[in-house]
From TrEMBL:
Residues 1-26 form the signal peptide. InterPro entries: GASA. GO terms for biological process: gibberellic acid mediated signaling pathway. Keywords: Gibberellin signaling pathway, Signal. This is Gibberellin regulated protein. It comes from the Eukaryota. Belongs to the GASA family. It comes from Arabidopsis thaliana x Arabidopsis arenosa. Pfam families: GASA (PF02704).
Length: 90
């Protein structure tokens, strides 16, 4: 009986952890690239990550290298605009 409870607990814990990562980081490729891109962000770090992940997903996982500039590496990322006509992507 104890083994069954331990196994059930382990399985439930694994499922909850997996779900957390699925919902918190829609694409791990984007997440890693955006962590680098936003590591020295002047604006709010969380806002930078949110916008970067949106742009990355819309642009087939393309995020420019480095923390600033280099947007010519990803024309889609470069050309996305917000509602004010400004660059959407950090």
């Amino acid at each position: 009986m104890k083994k069954l409870v331990v196994v059930q607990f382990f399985i439930i814990s694994l499922l909850l952890t997996s779900s957390f990562f699925v919902f918190s980081n829609a694409d791990s490729s984007c997440g890693g690239k955006c962590d680098v891109r936003c590591s020295k962000a002047d604006r709010q770090h969380e806002e930078c990550l949110k916008d970067c992940n949106i742009c990355c997903e819309k642009c087939n996982n393309c995020v420019p290298s480095g923390t600033y500039g280099n947007k010519d590496e990803c024309p889609c990322y470069r050309d996305l605009k917000n509602s004010k006509g400004e660059s959407k992507c950090p």
